[in-house]
Specification:
Two copies of one chain form a homodimer. The first copy, chain A, has 133 residues and is α+β, with helices and mostly antiparallel strands. Chain A has one domain: Arc Repressor Mutant, subunit A, CATH 1.10.10.10. Helices cover 47% and strands 14% of the residues of chain A. Chain A has four helices and four strands; from the N terminus they run E-E-H-H-H-E-E-H. In chain A, the strands form two sheets. A two-stranded antiparallel ribbon of chain A has the order 1-2. Chain A has a two-stranded antiparallel sheet with strand order 3-4. In chain A, a hairpin with a 3-residue loop joins strand 1 and strand 2. Chain A is elongated. The N terminus of chain A is likely disordered. The interface between A and B is large, with 43 and 43 residues.
């Protein structure tokens, strides 16, 4: 089974691994895994309300997230079109798309580091059995 | 102000930075920032109930966390002393202490990586102003 799976080990059904949740923060949380998913859905659907529905998020909670990130980041992530009453189309700004891409690069590279560190630091985890007391 | 602060930049009152929350997981979350704080408090106070109180956590919720981590990790993190009714002393096992130390090393090294990546990937963040539309 050589090379079968990069991070496989020899035993345990529910193998332990490490996951990094990356947050962008000022004095409060501004951006993270939830917000990036929201931007993805808006990018795909062209609609904040559809994006919120896809994430099981209320429309007002979705706009709260968007306003909070724009305030924290200091730039707009959503273009507002002057469409019909409350039903206008939405689209990410160039900065919004860049943020999405760069955040995902940040997340991916951090997770890769964490995977390496985890293997190194917890390499002997299988030998951590209960001592007799 | 050269060298004043390693990560300072030239402007913004509420500077953006990146924070890594490191979770140890199987098919569910096993360990993370909350649980490591709980172990620290138990280590300091010698008491699960005092540790829970210090974290504003109910005693039953504290034990839920401890049982979940022991189940996920496959070893005991707490020594149970056969003391008085419900009021026995608690102490971390050798593995519990090792877990605490190694998790913190993992967290620290991951955060250092993230800091470097953030500076690199978001180095031009100050120039992300709203475009005219």
């Amino acid at each position: 089974m050589e090379g079968f799976e990069e991070h496989s080990n020899n035993c345990s059904d529910s193998k332990l691994s490490a996951v990094a949740k990356v947050m962008l923060v000022t004095d409060k949380a501004v951006f993270g895994p939830g917000p990036v998913r929201l931007l993805h859905h808006i990018n795909e659907t062209g609609s904040v309300s559809e994006a919120c529905a896809a994430m099981n998020l209320s429309y007002s909670k979705g706009w709260q997230l968007l306003n909070k990130m724009e305030e924290g980041l200091g730039f707009k992530v959503i273009k507002r079109f002057h469409g019909g009453a409350g039903g206008g189309k939405s689209e990410l700004t160039a900065n919004g798309k860049l943020l999405m891409e760069k955040y995902e690069e940040l997340e991916k590279r951090t997770q890769n580091c964490l995977n390496d560190f985890f293997e190194e630091i917890f390499s002997d985890l299988e030998q951590w059995v209960d001592e007799e007391e």
